[in-house]
Amino acid sequence: MDATSGSARPLRLLLAAVAALASLDVAGFIAGQPRTALASPGRAFGSLLGLAIWLTLTVLAGAWTRGERGPGFRATVLGVAGLACAGSLGLMLIHIAAHVSGPTTVGAGVAGVAALGLAAAAWRESR
């Protein structure tokens, strides 16, 4: 099967869309609430690292959709999606435990799980 055809391509497109939306959400948080996002070194590091991970996943998913198939590429996408999932679920759980969660933090957890699920499904379909 060609790298850009078949049932894996829609999954890759969805993965790219989820990652792009999550990137926009994190960037919007940092730009819109810099006093909160960058209040402490730990929070600043987490905010910027989360943005970097989501942006990296956006770029990788886009390249995968266009047919990138280098050695280890699929594993890299799956690994970055796993990082995005772990970080987003961690963020959500910390906010829930602190009783300060809202739709955005729950949405982050959902986006992380969706990204990992889409990356795994695309991996399976593109073998």
Describe it for me?
The chain has helices at 8-32, 34-37, 41-65, 73-97, 103-125. It has 127 residues and is mainly α. The longest helix has 25 residues, at 8-32. The termini are close together.
Instruction: Please report which band the strand proportion falls in: under 5%, 5-15%, 15-25%, 25-35%, 35-45% or over 45%.
Output: under 5%
Order of helices and strands: HHHHH
What is the CA-based Rg, rounded?
Answer: 15 Å
Instruction: List the uncertain runs.
Output: none
Tally of strands:
0
* Backbone shape: elongated
Structural class estimated from helices and strands: mainly alpha
The total of helices stands at 5
**Helical fraction:** over 70%
Report the sheet with the most strands, covering strand number, pairing sense and barrel closure: none
Question: Averaging pLDDT over every residue, what do you get?
Answer: 92
**Intertermini distance:** 9 Å
